[in-house]
User: Fold this.
Amino acid sequence: MRISIKPRKFLRIQLRYGDYQKKFIEEWKAGKLRVGEISLNETKVLILFRKDVDLTNPDDWIAIDINENNVTAVSSNPHILRVESNLR
Assistant:
């Protein structure tokens, strides 16, 4: 990874990653993912990827309603779920 720190000055970081992360990198190289936000700390580099999804004609869907004391969900398969929080 190359990070610009000043004009024409770069910091190069060798990234280590496992098999799980490798599949995202391969999809990014194939043009299926885009790089989103990148965050750094002392020990880690977090790279978020973005994927464009066509939502014009979904095969399945789910609707979620979040209220003060419950969460209700319904899906196209059809399933209905209601979880009471008893916070009210």
User: Anything to note?
Assistant: Residues 17-51 form one domain. The mean pLDDT is 91. The chain has two domains: 17-51, 59-88.
